[in-house]
Amino acid sequence: DFLLLLQKSLVALFAAVAAAIVVSKLRGKRLNLPPGPFKYPIFGSWLQVGNSLDHHDFIKYAKKFGHLFLLKMGQRHIAVISSPELAKEVLLTQGKAFGSRSRNIVFDIFTGKGQDMIFTDYGDHWRKMRRIVTVPFFTNKVVQQYHGDWEAEAAEVVEHVRSNIAAAAAEGVVLRRRLELMIYNNVYKIMFDKKFESEEDPLYVKLKSVNGERSRLGQSLEYNFGDFVPILRPFLKGYLEKCKEVTRRRLNLYKDSFVEERRKIALVEEEKDKNRVKCGIDHFLVSQQNGEINEDNVLYIVENMNVAAIETTVWALEWAIAELINNPETQKKLRAELDAVLGPNKQVTEPDTHKLPYLQAVIKETLRLRMVVPCLVPHMNLDKANLGGYEIPAESRIFVNAWWLANDPARWKKPEEFRPERFLEEESNVEANGNDIKYIPFGVGRRSCPGIIMAIPIMGITLGRLVQNFELFPPPGQSRIDTAENNGQFATRMSKQSIIVLKPRNIA
Ligand code: HEM
């Protein structure tokens, strides 16, 4: 009896699979979907492709299936764009249709299903949130107002290294830790008018810990299976619970230790000065008072800034420093430019960075070869769309392989080389703001990165001052910094937190 039952079940299963294949083939035909690997029912191509998907994997598939291919991963459709023409279509020409964001199951938790700004659908809520953060964060006036603070923070990093120069010059230091404090301070100054005095500040330690947990949980590729294949989701129960718990702790920390603190100060100051609006959070609280956004939205703005501004800039700085160490001629040339333009006694400031083309080229080249967000933050089309002669199912996750656009040998001379000179020679018209679609480290169009306005000056000031004051070397016993990559959901960082040797310059 048992055998009979088993046989019947297997026949039924086989029939179901066959029917599903036929149906999906027919549907595929009807929809004229972009090409992609073979799809099984329920699992799609997940069985062959697996959990790990990064810009290098996407290049392999693009070589096989073309500049637009579609991965059916369980229930998710993932469309990957690998040509400038199609990137332009997605980000600019059809920027509205593809202007929403795809959230996976973990980012649904982090953002309360898109009550934030970065991961919300294109529409009124996004427009409102983006307007509210633009005034305190993303205008030229902000650069004018805060570059003095960014310079002071960079000077403190230099002092910090100097204070223990014997160790820094002999065994080296993990510089990224101090740089992370600097970036936290740059962002928290604008957002909360707040400064952490040291890496040991207990509030800073707490903040870094919850943000770090969130980053690890979000960036991991290991939960993809449950995002792709809903029937496997029970296996992720513990993971998702942890995400919820960390989200609660994080939002509570922002609320109790920062937002409410500021609300109290604001009340006192308002008694004295009705027009007092000092930092980002004051703007957000005014918008809340006006009923434009609610308290959760305020917390999600704070959460977004913690995510978008800090790790990206720290990781970009780490890559830049690694490249300057692994390319000593470039480092020397940069130092020579700083000396020639600024002289021996002037420390670089934001206005100076505009007179330092080689410094700008070093930043651009870092963001080309070591693109921190290599496939942009995934876009999404709310409705069925047409692209490159194919139909893209509604709510597809769209990755634009920006790294490949900036590293394709068909478009770049020896792209594998770190050579800032290219941005002064054959690519001298290419800017970081997306004026040429083959180079979009900050994206382009409606959902492009508004943080570019501060990321580039902060990188310029920091790298400039490090190179002005120190000679940078790999750790003792090594000839290079290890540049192995760690690819997460959206970002590429250095796998190892490298030790850097810093020797003071022999200034006569
Ligand atoms: C979005 C890169 C620093 C705030 C993005 C996107 C990229 C990016 C590629 C997605 C663009 C798209 O989907 O089309 C970078 C890099 C940075 C950096 C490489 C540093 C080197 C910053 C900073 C801030 C920031 C410092 C804030 C102060 C944002 C926000 C978004 C975003 C709010 C979402 C925009 C939206 O969805 O409307 N960033 N970013 N970023 N970035 Fe940045």
What does this structure look like?
This protein has 508 residues and is α+β, with helices and mostly antiparallel strands. It has a single domain (32-504), classed as Cytochrome P450 (Cytochrome p450, Orthogonal Bundle), CATH 1.10.630.10. It contains 19 helices and eleven strands. It has helices at residues 2-31, 46-49, 55-65, 84-93, 105-110, 124-137, 140-163, 165-170, 175-192, 202-219, 224-228, 237-272, 280-289, 295-326, 328-342, 350-353, 357-369, 402-405, 452-469; strands at 68-73, 76-81, 100-101, 379-380, 385-387, 390-392, 397-400, 470-473, 485-487, 492-494, 501-504. The strands form four sheets. A five-stranded mixed β-sheet has the order 1-2-7-4-3. Strands 5-6 form a two-stranded antiparallel sheet. α10 (202-219) packs across α12 (237-272). It is globular. The chain starts with a helix and ends with a strand. The model has no long low-confidence stretch (mean pLDDT 94). Protoporphyrin IX containing FE is lined by residues 117-118, 130, 137, 304-305, 308-309, 312-313, 316, 372-373, 376-377, 379, 441-443, 447-451, 454-455.
